[in-house]
Amino acid sequence: MSRAAEPPVKPEATIDLYEIQRTIHPRAVHGWFANWRVALVVLTQLVFYGTLWLDWHGRQAVLFDLVSRKFYIFGLVFWPQDFIFLTMLLVISALALFLFTAVAGRLWCGYACPQTVYTELFLWIERRIEGDRMARMKLDAQPLNGRKFALKGAKHGAWIALSLWTGFTFVGYFSPVRELLTEAVHVHLGPWETFWVFFYGFATYGNAGWMREQVCKYMCPYARFQSVMFDRDTLIITYDAKRGEPRGSRRRNVESRGAGLGDCVDCGICVQVCPTGIDIRHGLQYECIGCAACIDGCNQVMDKMGYARGLIRYTTDNAVNGVYADQQIFSHVFRLRTLIYSAILLAVVGAFITLLYLRVPLKVDVIRDRATLVRENADGRLENVYRLQLMNTSEITRSLMITVSGIDGMEVIVKQPVEVPVASTTTLPVTLRVDPARTTPGSHPVRFTIQDANDASVKTVEKSMFYVRQP
After folding, report:
1. Which superfamily does 362-468 belong to?
2. In this structure, are residues 40 and 285 in contact, taking their beta carbons and an 8 Å threshold?
3. The whole model's pTM is what?
4. Which of 152, 170, 246, 296 has the fewest Cβ atoms within 10 Å of its own Cβ atom?
């Protein structure tokens, strides 16, 4: 009796759990959105690289002096006690991001995000040295030779120079830049300055030169939750499948419907210009950073073919699906979601501006001497000792007068006026003295009033307690 025929053995299959990273060579593109992107790259970098070289009243205009715990922003001086302003600024930034995303998708990512900006700068350097897309692809495919080594070396040298200057600029906002430059020229940078210059430079070189779209696709959390802020009236970059399909190649000026085709000529330009390498014709994807390069690229093709622009365009789901006409898109910008975001944003901005306007350039901390709650002097009067920390947050010297209220006949023992220099802190002991006949045993609230002798509007009041011991 023969054995039953055994089933044939299937060959082993290899399953890749992770996609092998492929090098993306974005093609250069020109158009309305590309011009906007270039303009914002130039603007943001002029602000970043140029602001720290501006002077203001003999100092660096913008300086976050961590050692002295002072933040200088032109005419404003912020201290750690002003943390509320930083908190409000972060809240404003978050609300603005929510609003812009609800209105028109990832505008921040496509035009002003540092990752996008520096990737654009690095790509510009790469194109200037190695050429456009096809030239770079051919160069990468070649074996290493003298020409390839020279081009690659020049490119990476330029990238490293820009990265180090970026790191130096970043540190220049936290350490006076002119002193920093002098130390760098004489190779006398401190250990922390050296570390942060190279660390930030390395991060710039790695993110913009090597990782590029990987940062947007895998590291940035915004790509993962952006869709939560989208709705069917959000302006997003969309391929009009009804108009474009079925796609196929044809000669110029051929009427597409007469040839049984859509307007898409299947040229792949939209994929070639995409910095993250996606095909927008497959629909909206989280990898899309909203740079609109595909719109400019497609419009160029439509112009050459003699077709109307807008096969790929900014539109909404409702407009594409015929819920309303394209002419009605902007009338749906002001809807419940965007109105709520706008109202909250305006309220927080208004509160921020109001607090900044009403901000008194004088801060006072009153600390009682805990070693001796109360003491009796030679003439029998009772004394409490305090330590006042006077903080002048403005850039003019303040002459301050100190008065106290709360107990009749109370005397303030301190030399007045108290001079507090520009943007500095002065600590001085203050003694309060009172006749025991004018008060009763126990604790009594008192109020310190500190006022500028030359400007009555600069005044602050602090509460404390005056202790009277039992007889």
Report:
1. Immunoglobulins (2.60.40.10)
2. no
3. 0.83
4. 246
